[in-house]
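Allow me, if you will, to draw on your knowledge of protein folds for a short while. I have a record of one protein: its chain in single-letter code and its fold written as C-alpha cells. I remain grateful for any guidance, and I place the record below:
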Amino acid sequence: HERCLFASFPPGVLGYSLVLMAQGFYSANDDVVELNPSNFNREVLQSDSLWIIEFYAPWCGHCQSLTADWKKTATALKGIVKVGAVDADQHKSLGGQYGVRGFPSIKIFGANKSKPDDYQGGRSSQAIVDAALNTLRTLVKDRMSGRSGGSDYSRQSGGGGGSKKNVVELTDDNFDRLVLDSGEVWLVEFFAPWCGHCKSLEPEWAAAASAVKEQTKDKVHLGAVDATVHQGLASRYGVRGFPTIKIFKKGEEPEDYQGGRTRGDIIARALDLFSDNAAPPELLEILNADVLKKTCDDYQLCVIAVLPHILDTGAAGRNSYLEVMMKMAEKYKKKMWGWLWTEAGAQMELEASLGIGGFGYPAMTAINARKMKFALLKGSFSETGIHEFLRDLSVGRGSTATVGGGALPKINSVDAWDGKDGELPVEDDYDLSDVDLDDDIGKEEL
C-alpha cells in the first residue's frame, strides 16, 4: 500500500495541515476513539477488547483519503470491535513504540497487546471490517480452547504485555531482606521512569516475571528498583545507566545481565540460573496413579525405569540402578524432566502399554504425556547408554511409538520399597499328625 513516510510537512500543505492538527481527523461525534499516550494504556492495553487502530499524520494525503472509510468501519463495528486512531505525528513516542514508520499504519491489537499484528489488507471499510471479524473469530476460538494468547499479561502493565503483579518492587528498605538474605536467585532491573528504553523493557520484564514465577515454582524472582527514588541502592551497585539489570545469587557478587531484552531472552536466562542452582529432580517410585499422572502431566517428559524384582538383585543391586538414574537426573536437570521407577511386575498394564512385555529388565522409557508418545532405551542401562538415549531424545532423534490404548493405563496402588533385600514367600507348614499311614503299604512278602 502507498503510505506517507515520516517527513516534515510537504510543500503546499502546511496551512491545511495546521488546521487539521488543531482539530484532528475525528471528533466526539464519530465512533472512532481518539487515542494518545494519556489514555492508550487504559483504553487499549488494559482492555480485553479487540482493537484495530490507525496511526496517522494530519499532513498525510493517504490518511485523509482513509478518514471516511475509517469512520464507516468504526460505526459498523460499534459494540463489537473497538476502532481507534492515533495522531502519530503529534504523539511520536506512541507511534515509535509500535514501529510506525509511515502513514497510515493500521495495527490490530488482539490477545497479546504487546505485539499487535500489522493490517495488510485493502483500505475499504468492507475489507477492514472483514479482517477485524476474522481476527475476532480467531480470538474467540483460542479462548474456547483455553489459549489466552498472552492477554493476561497486558492487564496491569503500564507498557503493555505483562502483569506487573509478579515483578517485585524493591526499595532501600526491603532489598537486603528480600534479595540478599533469601538465598534464591534474583534478576533485578534498575530503571528510571523517564527512560525510554526502560519503558520498552517494562512489558517484556513483566511477562518474563510471570512465566519465570510459574516455571521455576517461584524459586527465581524478577524485581525492579526505581533508581531515581532509591539512589542509595543504585550507587551501591554502580548503576550508571538505565535500564541496568543485575543477577544476584547466594553468596556471590552480583553480575551484570548481558542477554537480550525480549521476554524470551530473559526467561531463558532465568531458567538457566534456576537449573544451575536447583537440586536434581526427585526420583519417585510409582506407588499409585496420582504419582504417575502428576509427574507426566507436570513435565515435558517423564523418564521411567522398570527395575528387576528385588529377589533378582537384592537391595545393593537395586540401589546401584537407582544411583545411575539419580546421576542422569542431575545431568539432565536443566531439561526439567520427571523421573520415576517401578519394580518389574508391579505395574503390568503400564509395561504392556509401553511394549516392555515382562522381560529385559532393567528397562527404561521416556513418555511425552501430551502427545502420548514414548521411546524405549535400546542400549545398556548405564550412564553411557542412558545418556546417549536421552541426548538423542533431547535433539529430536530416536524412534517413538504411541502409548498402547492412547492413554496412560491403569496403575496399581503398591507399598513403597522398604530399602531391604527381598524375602522369599514362606510356604504353609502342613500338620501330618492326623494322617493315618499304613505301614504295610508298599511292602512285599517274601
